[in-house]
Every structure is written in C-alpha cells, then in structure tokens.
Amino acid sequence: MTLPQIIVFAILAVMMALFVWDRIRYDLVALLGLLAAVAAGVVAPQKAFDGFGDDVVIIVASVLVVSAGIGKSRLIRRLIRVLEPRMRTPGAQVATLTGAVTFLAAVMKNIGAVAIFLPIALQVARRTGTSPSLLLMPMAYGSLVGGIVTLVGTSPNIIVSRARQEMTGEAFGMFDFTPVGLGVVAVALLFLSVGWRLLRGVGQGPTNGAAMPAPYLAEARLGTDSPFAGKTVGELETEVEGEVHVAAIVREEGRRYFPAGHWRLHPGDQLVLRGDPDAMRTLVAEAQLELGHTGKDGARGAAAEEDAVEVEEAVVLPGSPLAGTTARALRLRDTQGVNLLAVSRRGEAVTARVRDLRLRVGDVLVVQGAAETLSASLDELGCLPLVPVATELGKRRLDYLPIGLMAIAMASVAAGLVPVAIAFFGAAVLTVALGVLSLREAYEAIDLPILVLLACLIPISDAVTETGGAALLAGGLAHVAGALPAIGALGLTVVAAMALTPFLNNAATALIMAPVAAQMADQLGMNADPFLMAVAIGCACDFLTPIGHQCNMLVMGPGGYRFLDYPRLGLPLTLLVATTATLLIPLVWPLTG
Fold first, then answer.
1. What domain count does the chain have?
2. Residues 6+ apart with CB under 8 A from 44
3. CB neighbours (10 Å) of residue 22?
4. How far apart are CA 564 and CA 253, in angstroms?
5. Which residue from 113, 184, 110, 191 is spatially nearest to 144, judged by alpha carbons?
6. 345 lies in which domain range?
7. Could you tell me if residue 253 is inside a domain?
8. In which element (H, E) is residue 132 found?
9. Which InterPro entries does the UniProt entry name for this protein (predicted)?
C-alpha cells in the first residue's frame, strides 16, 4: 500500500467515524475531509472544487426543486380522498399508501414523496383507529425501492450513472434502471402488503391496536387561581388517573426539583409534565394551568386576537435548524413567532424543561403561533405539519404543470434530446418562472447540506481511484469473490453496499463503491454494468436502521419507532431485495460477454 493510498483511506476512515459519531453535521465533516485531502496532497488544489460544478450536484438540486413543485399539486390528495373509503383495513391502507408512495418516489426524490404522504397517512390512521406504526415504516421502505426505478429517483442512481460515463463515455439512460427496479419493487410491495403484521405491538399499547402516541413533554405554570395551589403532586396526578405525571418542578429562580407525590404545589411553580396528550389537555383545563409561555415577550402576533392563534403538531425533519439545539438557544418566540408548548419523543423519559430540551430529528412538537405566519415559520424551521395543509395554488392548471414539467424532462432524456443535467435544470427554472414555486420556495427546496456533501466527496472519490485505492479494494473483494460463482460476486457487491450505507450515507457510499465495483468486475473478467447496478440498489435500500436514510428517520417520531424496531420488518425485506436484485440483474445486464 502506497503513502497516498494510506492517506486517502485514513481520511475516509476518520470521516466514517465522524458520520457514525453524529456530533458534527455531515456536510461539515465532508468539508473538513476535502480540506484534509487537499492539505495532504491527495487532491490537487485545482481540482478541489470540481465537485461543485459536477453534473451530479446540478441534477440533484434541480430534481429537488421540481419535486417540491410536484409536492404542491392537489392531484395526489384528491386521488387519496377517492381511495380512502376503500381503505377500511390496515392491510388495504398499507397497500394503498405504500403503493402510492412507491410510484411517486420513482419520479421525484423519495424523501419528498414520504413528506407528501406522511400527513395523509396520519389522517387515515386517526380516522380509522389504525396505529400509525403499521403504516409509516412500510411507506418509508416503499419510497426507497421506488427510487431505484428511474435515473432521478435517488442520488445513488445518478452517481453510478456518472461513474459509468467516466469509464465508458456513456451514462446510464433515464429508464435503464427500470427493468430491475420494477422487479424489486414488485417483490418488495408484495412482501410489505403482508409483512406489516410484523410491526404489531410496535409503538402502541399492550392491549389494543389503536394508535397510541408517544408521551408528550410540556411545561405549565400553576397560577394563583388554580384549585390545586397548596395541594400535593399526587393529588394533581390523580385528577387524570395517573396518565400525566409531574416530571419536575422549577421554582426558586430556576432551580429544578424532581418531586415525590407528597410535595406541595405553590402558585408560580413551573411544572414539567409528561404523559398522554389528551389527558394533559384535560389536566391543563381542570387545574387551570398556563401552558407554555405568554406575555409581552411572547410570539410574534401574540397581541392578535385569540381566534387568530393556532396550535399545530409538527415533526422535526432531517436538516432542520432545530436539530441539536434548544428553543431557548434559538429564541424561537422572538425570531420566529413560535411558542413551543410540548415535545413528544419515543423511547426516552425526558425530564428537562421544554425550552431547554435539545431537540432531535423525528421529535414531534406542539407549537403555537399566529395563524397567518405559523405555516411559513414551520417551513423555515424545517418542520413538517402532521395535519394536511390545504395547499390551494389558485389556478387549476398549476396542479398539472409540475407533473408535466417532470414528464417532459424525463422524456427528453429518454429520447436522447438533451443531457440529464440540462433537462432537469430547465424543468427547475420553468417551475419557478411559471409560478409553481416562488424563488424563496425553490431555494428552500434545495437541500444544501447534501449538495455540499456530494461536492466535497466527488474529489475525494476521484482521489481513491487515482491513487490506486479503488483497485486495491477491488482486488480484496475480487479475492473473496473469486471463490464464489459469478452471481455470488454480484450478490457480494449488493450486500457490501447495503452494509456500508448506514455508516456513510447512501450518496457517499455510491461515490466510493461505484469505482471499486467496476474495477472488481474488470479484475474478475466480467462486465461492469451489472456491478454498478448492484451498487445503486444496495446503496438505495437501507432497511435496517433509522439513520441510513432520511426517509427512515422522517417516520421515526410520528410512528413511535425505536432503533431496534426497524430490523423487524427491515431484515426480511433486506434479504428479499438482495436476493431478488442478485437474480434479476444478470437477466438484464449479462455478467460476461
């Protein structure tokens, strides 16, 4: 192993460790990795910023804008309203919602497809009494397999297409992924339509299958007029039959206490409450508690009339500025006009004050704000409302326009009329120019952290190849694969990509694995195309953890899932997808010849 190879592998190892540690944002890790690679001399200074102008970055950014335009269309919600009367059983709900998300993920970014259907699924769950945990994980997994059907469905497809173009001068076409992708989708949907039963008992109570929300953490002030002033903590909790308990009391200029049941309550006490949201509402009303913080320094619009104030539930999305910080640090009331009333987090007994709780991706928040600005504030904070928002675009044709623009872009690429980057860049520009999105909405739709990650990792990925590191890794894999039949080598590639994705991010894994898989195929005397397809499928399909893909993380809070709930459905699906892909790829992309 040469010194440049040692350096580039060391940089990748440190980056992987930082990704897993998850204390530093992944885009900053990528920036530090690029800086280290330039300083160490494995990336030439004149090539350091080539990634920012790479077609992959342009395509991903453009698809995100067009996807946001599709997300504003009312056609999807109309279709679901038509189908809703037929979704009477959990099986029918899973099949309909997962099928719809899977189809949509084939033509737009899969995280966008899940974001569109998440509020719809929660509404269906509430109306029918089905546990959201039975619906949301199958939807997330459906979006992942749906993304492998077309070139633009997921970032790994775009990245392996770039790798093929660099090797052969010809990229994969728009629908080159479709034959294998449809086969994998069909098998996955058949499994999910029955496999959802493995989620029974997840995120719900032991006695029934009704939706059981995670306990909420809220903060309320005991006023002087409260009938419980002077009574004990136990008496307050008994009022709602113990469904809400006082996790802490804040008094004496901010000192926090963890009270026993005999503690007496005094006017002015700040009570940190934890429990069932319905029982908490009852307790707040009957005990005349003051929920949240009000007063002169309240939310923007606090002086507005009471009927102009709204309370909404919203989930913290990946990339939200709330993740990793507190409401106090962000000064939410002063800067955004939002008053944080309560937080729901599955699987952890939280006792911190609401404003001091360090928020996480997947947390469900109860927020209060002016009706006119609350929706915009949540959007700016990277939170998804958990009730469907009536998005009226004013003109009926705008419901069809973004879908039409996406269809034209895909058809133009499939027909070979224009390159992929130009087609989707044009569609993104027209999405704004024709009024589907405002410029502000378009910029907000662009996931800047993932673009920075891609732009920084592209030069590092190229360095892996240029230093001979890819050939070295390929040789190791080829040595193992040499003892296997040809189809076993292909299966090994799928499994290796699936194993690496939870630790690196699917786009990063594709950037590293694509050249390695191609060179392994060359050393084995096989065609590179099937191995690149194997990398694309392996990178896109992480069903074992919530951290491997944003779609999995997005449903964690609303579904009430814990980390170890994912393998219950994900492990058999992983084995099924890996086997199906390994058998289907050689039928479409011959291993030899």
1. 2
2. 38
3. 11
4. 41
5. 110
6. 306-385
7. yes
8. helix 132-146
9. Cit_transptr-like_dom (IPR004680), DASS-Related_Transporters (IPR051679), RCK_C (IPR006037), RCK_C_sf (IPR036721)
* Residues 66, 332: Cα–Cα separation, whole Å: 30
Query: 427 in helix, strand or coil?
Result: helix
Same domain? 379 vs 317: yes
Q: What distances in angstroms separate CA 61 from CA 154, 183, 214, 224, 447, one per listed residue?
A: 12, 28, 35, 55, 7
Dihedral angle, C-alpha 559, 564, 567, 569, nearest 10 °:
-30
SS3 385: strand
Does a structural domain hold residue 408? no
φ and ψ at 202, to 5 degrees? -90, 130
Which of 287, 316, 339 is the C-terminal boundary of a domain? 287
pLDDT digits (tens, 9 = 90+) for 74-130: 676 677 667 777 788 899 999 999 999 999 898 888 887 888 888 788 878 877 888
CATH number at residue 229: 3.30.70.1450
Residue with tokens 């991706």: 361
Asked whether residue 271 is domain-assigned, the answer is yes
Q: Over range 297-316, report the average pLDDT.
A: 56
Identify the sign of the CA torsion 207, 212, 214, 220.
Answer: negative
Domain assignment present for 460 = no
Contact 503, 532 (CB under 8 A): no
- 398 or 161: which leads in pLDDT: 161
Place of tokens 């006023």: 223
Please identify, among 357, 385, 413, the residue that sits at the C-terminal boundary of a domain: 385
